[in-house]
Amino acid sequence: MRLFLALVPPPELRERLGELADAAHAHYGGRRMPDESLHQTLAFLGEVSDVQATELVDWVRRLTVPPGEWRLDAWGHFRRPGILWVGGHSPDPALGRLQRRLWDALEGFGLAGRPTRFVPHVTLLRRAERLDAHGLPTPDLVWVYNRLDLIQSINHDRGSRYVSLARSPES
Ligand code: 2AM
Fold first, then answer.
1. How big, in percent rounded to 5, are the helix, strand and coil portions of the chain?
2. Atom of ligand 1 at shortest distance to CA of 40?
């Protein structure tokens, strides 16, 4: 199964992110991520075996995530495949430390895939029709977090559906 570790926004922040997604969609077109799918990926694990998935569920249920606040104050994009995202203007040291700590542990589970560059972001649009407009208001949100989710990504005809398999305790 295909898994990733992510921060899941609390309901109020999810709503704000949904509003940004609407504004971005009006400008850039493409496929708007549904509100229930909005997240910030800390580690994309790809395909893992059932045995590994069971170990990961146990691990996440005991994991402590140091509480933090991530400021979302910038728009960004990945040219392929037309991803428009909201994230931080500058790298967030606490998220960087968390991501490195997670990958140290994941490599202990025999998982590979640590990326060379970590750009924390929340994807709002996929396959945007253009990425060159500058008419959007600058975002200004704060994401207060103290836990993460282990999420399964299930492919279906219109994209992916995400199901949380485990959630770390609140710290
Ligand atoms: P994205 O939103 O920028 O596409 C589930 O697919 C999550 O894992 C998404 O947040 C996705 O980021 C992220 N991800 C990171 N690397 C990936 C990869 N190689 N394939 C698919 N998703 C990846």
1. 30, 35, 35
2. 10
